[in-house]
Design a protein that fits this description.
The protein is α+β, with helices and mostly antiparallel strands. The protein has helices at about 15-25, 30-50, 150-165, 180-190, and strands spanning about 5-10, 55-65, 70-75, 80-90, 95, 100-105, 110-115, 130-135. The chain has two domains: about 5-55 and about 140-190, Phage gp6-like head-tail connector protein (Hypothetical protein yqbg), CATH 1.10.3230.30; about 55-135, no CATH class. The mean pLDDT is about 90.
Length: about 190
């Protein structure tokens, strides 16, 4: 069983309220909170759809056991660093895996942790969530660090949701997220990790 949870949230959104308002051509402040919430929801949608962390955040990834291949593929990109790898030993005590046992590849689209030559993972008790990996992912801490395609996807989504506040309006054609947005998200996706 795999589990992925965010340990610390991004400090800023990849699109500011002012950027969103400019895109929407909104010149008043009455909707600022609503627009901020739309930006947050759109960012989450882009991240979940793409498997990419836009602004730096810390994640905790748990596994039941070490992979037989010796290689752990992390389900979130781009990877900045691995903070720690911990495991529960046969006596039921959580231990930290020595950094001399593994290496981290942050250059691939799907980041990975792998055993160094001649090394093996420590023995676990063989129970649920015995392995805990804490890692930092994201393009950086600033709005300008985020790829333009991701920011534009967020702006398109915010615009769509701002203009179409109800899922269906009787007597009209159902408004869907534009195909342009779906195409943008598809090209930005990281291959799924199983």
């Amino acid at each position: 069983m795999l589990s992925l949870t965010q340990s610390s949230a991004p400090a800023v959104e990849p699109v500011t309220v002012d950027m969103a308002k400019e895109h929407l051509r909104v010149t008043f402040d009455d909707d600022n909170t609503y627009i901020r919430n739309l930006v947050r929801a759109a960012r989450q949608r882009v991240e979940e759809s793409s498997g990419r962390q836009l602004i730096t955040a810390t994640w905790t990834y748990t596994l039941d056991c070490w992979p037989a291949s010796g290689e752990i593929l992390l389900p979130w990109s781009p990877l900045q660093s691995v903070t720690s790898i911990k495991y529960v030993d046969t006596g039921g005590t959580q231990q930290t895996e020595a950094g001399t046992v593994y290496d981290v590849d942050i250059t691939t689209i799907v980041p990975r942790i792998f055993l160094k030559y001649g090394q093996s993972w420590s023995t676990t008790r063989g129970h649920t969530n015995d392995i805990e990996i804490i890692f930092v992912a994201g393009y950086g801490d600033a709005v300008s660090d985020v790829p333009e395609v991701a920011r534009q996807a967020i702006l398109l989504m915010v615009s769509h949701w701002y203009e179409h506040r109800e899922p269906v309006v009787t007597g009209t054609i159902v408004a869907r997220i534009p195909e342009t947005l779906e195409a943008m998200l598809t090209t930005f996706e990281v291959p799924m990790v199983a």
